[in-house]
Amino acid sequence: MKTRIHPTRIIAYLVQLALVGFLYWFLRSHFFLMLLAIMVVVPVLSLVAVFILRHVVEVTLVAPERRQAKDEAGYLKLLVRNPSWLMSFDANMMLRTENTFYGDSAAVRISVPIQMHSTYEKMLPLRYSMNGMYRYTLDGFSMRDLLGVVSLCKKVKTVTEVTVYPEGDGQPVGNLSDMSRGMTESEETMKRGHDFSDVSDVREYIPGDKLMSIHWKLSAKRDILMVKDRVSMSDQQMVILTELSGEDEQIDEVLSLTYRVCQSFVREQVYVRLMWWSEGNYAFEERQIVNREALKEAFSDLYYDKIYKDTEKTRELMRSIRPELKAYVHIIHRNGEADAEVVEQD
Question: pTM, whole model, 2 decimals?
Answer without folding.
Answer: 0.77
